[in-house]
């Protein structure tokens, strides 16, 4: 997926937390030169870890990072792509803080924050902290993406949506950067669908972790030693996942192949259907999707303080 990744481009990360680390790790595993990556991160220990683990450049100055410089007075070639990898509740402040630099250097700006809309992001990147328009009526080139934590092991699943200002070259760059950590990446036709992607694959890893917790706990209650139950449950999840990917067979067909008539699986599936498993998963995906929409609305306004995420 990353075969066409252009390693000469300069990439800036604003925020050096979990997701930034995952994506940087994937880029480096794909041969990206660490000196073409700069991370702006306020926490000193995180910066030191980024430097020692990856050898990337770091700074505490977000606007300087957009200029791809540790010193804003000494800018040679600015960033081609700026990835906003901060929590949704601080996105507004962060975006307004780099608005001048984005307007000046014109990178494609990629946001991974749940719920935050491109309309809001465009507004924040076009105004200073006092709300004055600094855009000169030019909207920035924006891409909204939703990756997931399996990106950490280069097995991510990612949805993407680009604003109309994004060029084909910028789209390819954004796709390939996310592709460095994703086995599956798709453009969606409408931005709202990214909330559905969040409900499916963004939050999805947690559903599988919960399932492994439940399976292992049940088997432990029935007498298996905890480490044996954990080991079997984890590998069952991984093995089933590998079959889904490697065979590309319909999941319902794969399920049928495990299910002997009136056998053990048949009994288990009947029990799951009777417990309302289908509805429970539907409700979960709907709840996460709605929450994504809510977060976008909640953090759209400056005066509203939302939950800690
Ligand atoms: N975790 C997940 O499964 C997924 C998360 N996302 C999205 O990714 C985004 C980041 O999440 P995640 O990596 O988990 O969060 P983290 O908290 O791990 O990372 C955010 C980083 O931003 C830093 N930061 C805080 N304030 C600023 C600032 N003003 N300027 C620059 N950096 C700052 C934080 O530093 P400090 O620690 O010092 O506060 C932290 O290192 C979120 O918007 C989330 O919605 C998307 C897909 C999946
Ligand atoms: O729970 C969240 O809000 C983030 C977004 C998707 C996964 N984690």
UniProtKB/TrEMBL annotation:
One of its GO terms (biological process) is L-proline biosynthetic process. NADP(+) binds at residues 14-19, 85-88. Coiled coil: none annotated. It holds the Pfam family F420_oxidored. Residues 10-114 form the Pyrroline-5-carboxylate reductase catalytic N-terminal domain. Residues 191-295 form the Pyrroline-5-carboxylate reductase dimerisation domain. Keywords: Amino-acid biosynthesis, Cytoplasm, NADP, Oxidoreductase, Proline biosynthesis. GO terms for molecular function: pyrroline-5-carboxylate reductase activity. It is an enzyme of class 1 (oxidoreductase). Its EC number is 1.5.1.2. The keyword Transferase does not apply. Pathway: Amino-acid biosynthesis; L-proline biosynthesis; L-proline from L-glutamate 5-semialdehyde: step 1/1. Belongs to the pyrroline-5-carboxylate reductase family. HAMAP family: P5C_reductase (MF_01925). This is Pyrroline-5-carboxylate reductase. The lineage of its organism: Eukaryota, Fungi, Fungi incertae sedis, Chytridiomycota, Chytridiomycota incertae sedis.
